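Q: Sequence in, structure out?
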Amino acid sequence: MVEIKEVELKDESVFGQISEYNHEKVVFCHDHETGLKAIIGIHNTVLGPALGGTRMWSYASEAEALDDVLRLSRGMTYKAAISGLNLGGGKAVIIGDAKKDKSEALMRRYGRFVKNLNGAYITAEDVGTTTKDMEYIKMETDHVAGLPESMGGSGDPSPVTAYGTYMGMKAAAKKAYGSDSLEGKKISVQGVGHVGGYLVELLAKENAQVFITDIYEDRLREISSKYGSKIVSMDEIYDLDVDIYAPCALGGTINDATIERLKCQIIAGSANNQLRNEDVHGPALIEKGIIYAPDFLINAGGLINVYSELQGYNRESAYAQTERIYGYTLDIFELAEKEGIHNQVAAMKMAEKRIQSIGKVHSTY
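A: Exactly. Output:
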């Protein structure tokens, strides 16, 4: 399922939105000939160049698109920092229907905008874009990752993202149940696209009971047939009596309305920005006794995979580094408990600590 909730902006001005998240740079890209309308958000480059995927989506408004790219790019900063990568945080969105509006010319024109940033931003694939799109972008700029293996890249990062999510989920199970085994656990997966589909495969191999939903009926039938998952409606997913809820589509699905309905003990999924409002819904999950595995931590496998590509790709090394998400997740739970804060804040605090410490090193040059 793909869902974006109504945007609630503290400041309606463009600069008000940007300053809220303390971004370094936001670039608006427009090309009349190809119909390109894109926004590139560069949040922080203390640790290195900003790397993050390009998402193509039919946003309800330009304000919603800006809000999404700002939240996503900030999340990439934390994701890179907490994973020990020498990367900054960036993200981009292209406004449009990926099934109807995308073209070679549009992606290549977008690649020219990325090139003009002179390496401050490196793009990769995301929702609505593919490795083929990265090939088109590569024709215009070298600042792109997630290329097909035939071109010396790492290919689709989705399997590694799913593996990291799986590791984080198992760590949360260890915290909740004293064992990280998912055998027999009832798990609802919201969104079975690239990452969600691979996650269902991992869960099926461990003999979990998996419930799935998505906006694409053909994809649901495919995954259900392949792994024996039970299909439920998009709205029903919130009311299931399950052990674990895994949001694997777009963000904002943990909000005032859904928290009241959730009956799970754990939330661990691959979607970005799952908490509609971190300050409100992080504490709300604690009050309800739900363990939340921070999204930007457990979905970092894709970024780790792409980073490995930039260093000289080694699949085994990428998976080994992604496996460390298990330990990082347990560390976050311990820090949150020790300091009496919710898990998302604990993860952000750990990420910011690394950024600040490395920033002091860089300032001596």
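The first strand starts at residue 25 and ends at 31.
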